[in-house]
Every structure is written in C-alpha cells, then in structure tokens.
C-alpha cells in the first residue's frame, strides 16, 4: 500500500521538533513538502520540498494530509481551506481562537468525510501516562484534588508572535490546550470553570501566567502555567481518599528531539524521574515512569486516514478542550465562574 503524502504549512520550531520527526517515524506517511515564507528556508529533513504558499501545496495531488503549524490566529482559516480542498487535517494547538470556529470545522470535516484532529501529542507523555495508570489502578482511591503544572523559567519576553499580544498569543492559548486535554481525558466534562490569567513579566504583551480551576461535584482540577518558575513545582500533584501521587519532572521527549534523538532510538521516551506514591499511612515508594511515545499521534492519524483505526482524538474531545479554553478566558475577563452548558 502506498504511503500518504503529507505537507506541513509552517516551518518553525513545532515543525522541526515535533511534526517532521514524528511523521517520518510513521511507515504509512511520507513527508513531501513544507510551506515556508522564505524561498531559501532550510527543509526540516532531506528530500522534503520547500513550497511558497498553501495553494502550491494543495495543487499537488500526492498530498493527502496537511498539518497546519502556523500562528494560532490563522488556524481556522487555513484548516477550512484545506478541508474544502478535500484533504485530511492536523491543526496545531490551539485548535482555533473561537469555539464557534472549531464547531464549524468539525461539521465541515464530517460533511466531507475527512479526518480532522488537533495535535494533542502530550497524551503520550511519560509523566501523564504514569499518573493516568496509577489513578486507573486505584492507587490514590477517589481523586479529590488534581494539579497539573506546565511551568517554565523564561523571565525575559522574547520577540515572537506567541508573546507579542496579538490574537492567539499568550501562555493559556499555548499551553492550556495540553493541560486541558490531559485533565479532560481523566475526568471528563466539568460543571464549571474559573480562571485568573495575567501578565507579570516586564514588557509582556501577552498573558504569561494562568491559573484555571475545573470544577467537578467531587473534586477540583487545577491547571497552571507560568513563565517565572525556576524549579520546585511538581509537574503533577494528585490527592485522593487513599493516597497521593507526585510526578516531579516534565516529559523529556521535546528536549530529546531538540538534542537530536528520534523515535526508534534506544533512549527515546525514557524518563529517569519516577512517579512517587504516598499511601494512606504516609509511606512512599517510587514507580518507574513508562516510556513516552508522542509519535503515536501520527501512527493513529495515518490509520484513521486509511480507514483502519480511530483518530488520535474524537471531534467531541477536540471541541470540549476548546470549550474549556474559551470558558477560562471568559472567566478571567469577567471575574466570574463560567458554567458549561
């Protein structure tokens, strides 16, 4: 069976660190071309063509799947263009800036019989897989407090669209989709959302701090992202009626890819930082983190496009993430708890 030709729109960090390596690791996909603004841009891999615009990419009948890895404010328009041209689509997070745009794209994909997904690669992070397995095994009993942090130490504002205050910039649009997707996979739809989103770094044009609470009848789920955290905050903190889980460090796959490792390499996805479980008596034990496999996203995407397996995420899951993202923005702006319909 011939492989599915893939084109990526955008030639930035996400393409080089995530999309290109993961696509090339999938036997059913072939990365053929990347849209880049500069004609002299370096391709993310040998044998990959650089093309000047979306129209040129879509004129190639060998392209069956398109990845939208452009600034967030352009996602909805480009994804619609690709779907209307009859191609399957992966959209970088955030899916869109408005929930209504996301719903319209989902409806269009269903109408055209095409696969549409958002790049929720962190479903296959070592830290999340470890915590999810422990919760499902009942190691902490019923969860009453779940805390997920995606913190960084970047006290200086950088000159890039993610931090310039333009539509779609800011830490909640950037990291919120990962935090929300993982929590929603574990606990499903919350009753309500409350949020505080702010800018604290000098000269910051976009929000660089977000503290969001998903409210459930029997628990609270805290999603937090900050840009002035030099260390000390666990990636996950989970308290339940039977114990506690602490996962200190972030999944290593992004750092491994930046360092030149690739899926299939012996050390790929290995995480030396264990999950720590505290039982009801206060005794602790370490549990080895499972191997991460973010490249699974594209393996599943290929199967969905070929009609041999499910997509990496359902459309309902994609829309629920977007609903939570939007509810948090409304809550922070209006200073109120937002009930989900």
- The name of the CATH architecture of the largest domain is 2-Layer Sandwich
- Count of runs of 4 or more consecutive helical residues: 9
Mean pLDDT: 97
Shape: globular
So what's the CATH class of the largest domain?
Alpha Beta
- Biggest sheet strand order reads 14-13-12-11-7-10-9-8-15
Low-confidence stretches: none
Summarize the biggest pleated sheet: 9 strands, mixed
Count of folded domains:
2
CATH superfamily of the largest domain: Dihydrodipicolinate Reductase, domain 2
Secondary-structure element pattern, one letter each = EHEEHEHEHEHEHEEEEEHEEHHE
Itemize the secondary structure elements and their pairings.
Layout: E1 4-9, H1 13-24, E2 29-35, E3 49-51, H2 54-58, E4 63-68, H3 75-84, E5 88-91, H4 99-112, E6 116-118, H5 126-136, E7 143-149, H6 171-187, E8 192-198, E9 209-216, E10 219-226, E11 236-240, E12 243-247, H7 253-258, E13 275-279, E14 284-287, H8 296-306, H9 315-334, E15 338-339
Parallel strand pairs: 1-2, 1-4, 2-3, 4-5, 5-6, 7-10
Antiparallel strand pairs: 7-11, 8-9, 8-15, 9-10, 11-12, 12-13, 13-14
Helix pairs in contact: 3-4, 4-9, 6-9
Can you summarize this structure?
Helices cover 31% and strands 23% of the residues. The chain contains nine helices and 15 strands.
